[in-house]
Amino acid sequence: MPKLRIDADLHRAPISDLPAETLAELARSIKREGCRDPIVVWKNHDIILDGCNRYAICEKAGIGYRTVSIDLPDRDAARGWILAAQYGRRNWNAEQRGIALGELLMLRKKAAGANLPKPPDGEKTGEKPNDLLKRKNCALGGKTAAAIAQEHGVATRTVELGEELLLAVNALAEAAPDLPAQLAAHKGPKRKTIIEAAKHADDPEKAKAILAGTPEPEKSTSPTDHFGNPLPKNLIEVFSRRNELAKMMTTLSLIKTTITRGCESHDPLYLHVTKTQMEGSLGQARSHLRFASPYAVCPYCRGSGGIGKNCKLCKGNGWLGVYAYGLVATELKYVEPK
Predict the structure, then answer these.
(1) How far apart are CA 298 and CA 164, in angstroms?
(2) How far, in Å, CA of 46 to CA of 7, rounded?
């Protein structure tokens, strides 16, 4: 029999080591009764897919064992087989189970060609090629998630949330390279914390603080504009109402997302909705609200609006939106404020 190998990369997190007590009990059982279950091996590669602990115990004690070979096309298929086999067997926490389901989904979508699809040839559906590809990939991902959910007795949404968690963990590779190992050892943060930290992946220190549960330093309670400039009394109220516009922008984004999903999934309710036109109109409305939101104290009149409210830059309002500020900021560097 050829020498078998344990490939650590194929058995990486979220797969975790057995607790010492469980491993010791397994060793006693094998020494007492022999290795009853066969070692599952990747055919023609001599890599162990299932039974790494049993193999190590048998080799050390000189106990015989049986093997069963499984033919798999590549390493992704081998990794997926291991995850599926281990999912219901180990005492995993919710984060480990989520990552395993998410990785299974990504591996199967990749195998089905969802990640790098080729442009369709000769399809006369009236759709643009990019829109057609997005719709097909969305449908493929949904069917794959549903299939995995059925196999493991969970909801389809649970599989999709697992993929979201895995993407968050991957995004935190720089800030928290040991995070997968921590989760496998049942020592990592909860899902909600990981997702929140991933939003700040471009700021490793802040992401680390969130993962560690370190509260952010208290910010000054004095009202300021976008650049931290203190607000004069006459601008405090208008700047305090920026959230009203922010809520409108969030609502528009949600509407846009709902319409996109409905159209791409061919929901009959959205049959007569013109997706491109609606997305354009909603996007334009959101941009208008963003540019209209108070952004900075006018650097020319310092928020006073000028004498007789005739400041030419802010038109007497005392503040500028992000678009207006971007246009005049460079010029103002050379203008002495009044």
Answers:
(1) 41
(2) 10
CA dihedral 312, 314, 320, 321 (to 10 degrees): -80
Of residues 68 and 118, which shows the higher confidence score? 68
Q: How confident is the model at residue 336 (pLDDT cuts 50, 70, 90)?
A: very low
Residue 50 has pLDDT above 90, yes or no: yes
* Of 50 and 217, the one with more pLDDT: 50
For the chain, the residue count is 338
pLDDT in tens, 23-37: 999 999 999 999 999
CA atoms of 243 and 262, how far apart (whole Å): 28
- Strands 47-50 and 296-297 turn out to be unpaired
Q: Can you tell me whether residue 331 is helix, strand or coil?
A: helix
Q: Do the Cβ atoms of 98 and 84 come closer than 8 Å?
A: no
Q: How far is residue 192's CA from residue 98's CA, in Å, rounded to a whole number?
A: 12
Amino acid identity of residue 311, one-letter, is C
Task: Kindly list the structural domains of the chain, giving each domain's residue range(s) and its CATH number in brackets, ordered by start.
Answer: 20-72 (3.90.1530.30), 92-212 (no CATH), 233-332 (no CATH)
Within 10 Å of residue 178's Cβ, how many Cβ atoms?
11
pTM of the model: 0.56
- Residues facing residue 47 across a β-bridge: 5, 42
